[in-house]
Automatic annotation (TrEMBL):
It comes from Frigidibacter mobilis. Coiled coil: none annotated. One of its GO terms (biological process) is anthranilate metabolic process. This is Kynureninase. The keyword Hydrolase applies. The lineage of its organism: Bacteria, Pseudomonadati, Pseudomonadota, Alphaproteobacteria, Rhodobacterales.
């Protein structure tokens, strides 16, 4: 089809079609989510638009558990805007108390990438609005893992990747949500040609498209979107609430099994299931080597500096037998000090 595929195969509309499928999983209305670019790009877009919508304030509030890339993006953007702007970070449990009349935007990742601790989106969004701030929520560890209700929580902006619980593959496209009440007011800082009102008029002056369309930037990654579309098919037969219930069952069983057999590991995630996402983390000073020993034995988790072993639970694809077997293997690694080998302590570039 060559370039005719953009019309004949519907490629140009694919970011919106995929966005609507994700909208259903995150509690958003049709026409409020669009796909494209990377999560870092979408964080930049959302934060820049939110700041411009609150021009009398200069502070972005976040927490110390936020994913570093989000904080880096904020720092870079605020440097560009001038010395009057500042990023303020507080401990996750102190966010509510830090909202004051100086805060322009509250920018949080709903589920902490290290510990799995989950913020109360509805409560914090309400507090932010009461304080006169807008919200930007990062759903990287939430979408496809836990039930979400962006519309019900009155969230202003949200972003997320699709290569974790949505299974689109490495580097899969990100998404951005803008509340319908703001979609025609938000000015995209990255005013790319596909966010133009009429991209193929090739107008030398930018005119933002309608609603969420203005948050498009460059050419859609069609091959990546095709992989995402295939990965999303499972959600036509699965309910996120059922997935969440199974996730809690599996993670609780894992915690119990690991704590019974591995006293040297310390639970880093909230013990209460309703306070965490679909992951469980443990701490140990030799966390990196322990995780490498696990990976060598077929239990693939993550290490997150400085001492976190992170285990993700995807009930669509794993069950209780696999979870308990993973706990048994972890016990073998710990009891026999199988991690204490030079090859497991040599840090790879990706941890």
């Amino acid at each position: 089809m060559l370039i005719t595929g953009w019309n004949r195969a519907g490629w140009m509309d694919q970011p919106a079609r995929s966005g609507d499928r994700i909208a259903r999983l995150i509690g958003a209305a049709p026409g409020t989510v669009v796909m494209g670019d990377t999560l870092s790009i979408k964080v930049y877009q959302a934060l820049a638009s939110a700041l411009e919508l609150n021009p009398s304030r200069r502070v972005v509030l976040s927490d110390t558990g936020n994913f570093p890339s989000d904080l880096y993006i904020a720092e870079g953007l605020l440097r560009s805007l001038g010395e009057a702007y500042a990023l303020r970070t507080v401990a996750p449990e102190d966010v509510a108390g830090a909202l004051d009349e100086t805060v322009a935007v509250l920018m949080l990742t709903e589920v902490d990438y290290r510990t799995g601790r989950r913020h109360d989106m509805a409560a914090l969004t309400a507090l932010a609005h009461d304080a006169g701030a807008l919200t930007v929520w990062d759903l990287a560890h939430s979408a496809g893992a836990v039930p979400l209700d962006l519309a019900g929580a009155s969230a202003d902006f949200a972003v997320g990747c699709t290569y974790k619980y949505l299974n689109s593959g490495p580097g899969g496209p990100a998404f951005i949500y803008v509340s319908p009440t703001l979609a025609d007011q938000a000015r995209p800082a990255l005013s790319g040609w596909l966010g133009h009102e009429a991209p193929f008029a090739f107008d030398p002056d930018y005119r933002p498209g309608r609603g969420i369309e203005r948050m498009r930037v460059g050419t859609p990654p069609i091959l990546q979107l095709a992989a995402l579309e295939a990965a999303l098919d499972v959600w036509d037969i699965a309910d996120i609430h059922d997935v969440r219930a199974k996730s809690i069952e599996l993670s609780q069983a894992f915690i119990a099994a690991v704590e019974a057999a591995c006293p040297a590991l310390t639970l880093a995630s909230p013990r209460a299931a309703d306070q965490r996402g679909s992951q469980v983390s443990f701490r140990h000073p030799e966390g990196y080597a322990i995780m490498q020993a696990l990976i060598a034995r077929g239990v693939i988790g993550d290490f997150r500096a400085p001492d976190i072993l992170r285990f993700g639970f995807t009930p669509l694809y794993i069950g209780l037998d696999e979870v308990l077997r993973a706990a048994d293997i972890l016990a073998e690694v710990m009891v026999s000090d199988l991690w204490n080998r030079p090859e497991y302590k040599a840090r790879a570039r990706v941890t």
